[in-house]
Amino acid sequence: EIEGDQMPLNLGSCDHALCKECVRRWEQPNGSVICPTCRVVSTAACITKSYGMIKLLKYQQKEEASTRINELEGRVGELRVGKASLQSLHKPLVCVPLGS
């Protein structure tokens, strides 16, 4: 979930997006924020959540999780193949005759 200091915010006067932590860094004593990209001043009242950026970040997180799951599933398959090949190489130390 995207929240806290990582929450993307839009600066209303220029529509640039910054994380909440960065907005705090650029905040002036009167509560306004100077955009680090274009230097336009936005009042505190016109700073809003960047819903488009939130949607994009959630999509990216989902894609990264899906990629990671696929990688792990592939490794599990490799481990199963490795286990099977090791079992075929295994020879018991004592041979027990069949039917005993």
From TrEMBL:
This is Anaphase-promoting complex subunit 11. It comes from the Eukaryota. SUPFAM superfamilies: RING/U-box. GO terms for biological process: anaphase-promoting complex-dependent catabolic process; cell division. The keyword Transmembrane does not apply. Residues 14-39 form the RING-type domain. It holds the Pfam family zf-ANAPC11. Gene3D superfamilies: Zinc/RING finger domain, C3HC4 (zinc finger) (3.30.40.10). One of its GO terms (cellular component) is anaphase-promoting complex. Keywords: Cell cycle, Cell division, Metal-binding, Mitosis, Zinc, Zinc-finger. GO terms for molecular function: cullin family protein binding; ubiquitin protein ligase activity; zinc ion binding.
